[in-house]
Amino acid sequence: MVKFRTWLVAGLLVAAASGAQAQTMSYQQAGALLAKSCGPDIMKYCADVNLGGGKLLGCLDANASKVAPKCKSDFAAAKASIGKRIAAQQAIFKVCNADAARLCQGVVPGDGNLINCLVDASKAVSKACNQTITDAGWR
C-alpha cells in the first residue's frame, strides 16, 4: 500500500524540480487549493477527525490508497510552496543586505520600510534579491 506521505515526497521532488521560477502560494491560496482538491476525500474519509496535531494528515495517510491523486499532488505542491515562502522570508535580509545598503540609504528599518524600498527599486535590485522578495510573497 502506497502511503500518502510517499506521494507527498514524490510530489515535493516534482515541485522542487519544476518550481524554480514559480511564485509561492499564500496560506489562503494553499487552503483554497486543498479545500477544492482534498475536500471531498476529507469529508468522505476523515469527517470525524479534528484539525491539528497531524491527525488529518494521519487520516489521509491511513486512507492513501483511496485519496484522489489530485489531492496528493496539490498537497505536495502547497506544502513545497509554503516551505519555499517561509524560507524566503527568513533569508531575505541576508540575501538583500547589499542591495538595501546600496539602494535604501536613509530608510528607517521597520514597518516594512526596507522591503518597500527594495520593491520600489526592483529594476536596480539584484536578481537573487528580487527572486527572494517574490518568493517571500512581498511583491
Structural class call reads mainly alpha
For the sheet with most strands, the description reads:
none
What is the number of helical segments per DSSP (H or I, 4+ residues)?
6
Envelope shape: elongated
Strand fraction equals: under 5%
CA-CA gap between termini: 42 Å
Task: Give a quick summary of the entry.
This protein has 139 residues and is mainly alpha-helical.
Please, could you describe this protein's structure?
The structure is a single chain. This protein is mainly alpha-helical. 68% of the residues lie in helices and 0% in strands. It has helices spanning 4-18, 27-45, 55-62, 69-103, 113-120, 127-136. Helix 1 (4-18) crosses helix 4 (69-103), helix 2 (27-45) packs antiparallel against helix 4 and helix 4 packs across helix 6. The longest helix has 35 residues, at 69-103. The N and C termini lie far apart (42 Å). Residues 8-20 have low confidence and may be disordered.
Defining traits:
139 residues; mainly alpha; 68% helix; 0% strand; elongated
Chart the SSEs and their pairings.
Elements: H1 4-18, H2 27-45, H3 55-62, H4 69-103, H5 113-120, H6 127-136
Helix pairs in contact: 1-4, 2-4, 4-6
